Amino acid sequence: MNTPTPIWDGFVRGYHWLQAGSIVGLWYTGTEGLMDWHFAIAYLMLALLLSRLIWGVIGSETARFRHFIHSPSAVLDYLRSLHGKNTPPAQHLGHNPAGGYMVLMFFVLLSVQLTTGLFANDDIISEGPLAMYVSSNTSSYMTYIHAINFNLLLAAIGVHLAAILLYLIKKENLIKPMLSGRKVISETVTPKLVNGLVGWVIFAVIGGVIYIYWAKDIVAYLL
Ligand code: HEM
Ligand code: HEM
């Protein structure tokens, strides 16, 4: 009963921590103007996000959009259940109803950040691989959105970390399961997990295509 149950597959966990590291790297390289590194890390992040979105349809139950996107009323019920009690929040096999929307928001913000980056330019010599297909006005506008959207992303990360801390205070450690994949749950049903290796194969295929078309020269230059 009280033995840890697998809830996060290896792909979701690897995705999460590589994503967190990539964003720190993209923040630093973007603001410092280290554009070759910025592009290389951005291509990694692009391959990660595209594979995670596919995993949201065909991956483990806890990774699927259908499983973690609930109705707004379920979110309100969940938030009400958190309020004013000294007990730990209700357990969920995967993201809770409020967390599901947070995850969705991250995917939207990351998609905007990556898409605008592909059309952005730094007014010096670096431009995203799709910037040449649009006018310089459009590219400048994309660059502007790229900078604004990053602030939204930072705000979302702030809320994310605050929520994780709040759960810790409420005596629910969400970080350990995101590391080990397992969580002690009181429910008898266990989520259906797909082997994370399948996710990594999808990542390798998408990453390979991005590498061949966009990243090869930059990686060769950096190494
Ligand atoms: C750049 C920083 C970060 C971003 C963009 C980010 C984004 C995300 C996303 C998108 C998910 C959903 C994962 C999925 O379903 O694939 C998630 C889950 C999670 N993240 Fe982060 N994260 C960041 C940093 C962190 C850090 C530093 C921690 C730990 C201190 C953390 C702890 C967690 C935990 C515990 C979950 C699972 C939440 C749950 O049980 O529902 N994250 N994060
Ligand atoms: C999640 C992915 C990404 C993040 C978090 C990110 C973050 C950033 C940040 C913080 C900056 C500095 C903005 C400023 O000066 O205020 C920046 C600039 C830039 N990024 Fe990204 N970026 C991402 C993806 C991309 C991609 C995919 C490309 C193109 C392949 C790209 C190309 C650029 C360019 C050309 C600039 C320079 C813009 C300027 O000088 O104003 N970025 N990025």
Please tag this protein with its features.
223 residues, mainly alpha, Fumarate Reductase Cytochrome B subunit, two-stranded antiparallel sheet, 8 helices, 68% helix, binds protoporphyrin IX containing FE
Architecture overview:
- It is a single chain.
- This protein is mainly α and 223 residues long.
- It has a single domain (4-222), classed as Fumarate Reductase Cytochrome B subunit, CATH 1.20.950.
- It has 8 helices and 2 strands.
- It is globular.
- The structure holds protoporphyrin IX containing FE (2 copies).
Strand order of the largest sheet: 1-2
Q: Specify the overall morphology.
A: globular
List of distinct ligands in this structure: protoporphyrin IX containing FE
Query: Which residue ranges are poorly predicted, with pLDDT under 50 across at least 5 consecutive positions?
Result: none
Q: Quote the CATH topology.
A: Fumarate Reductase Cytochrome B subunit
Overall SS class: mainly alpha
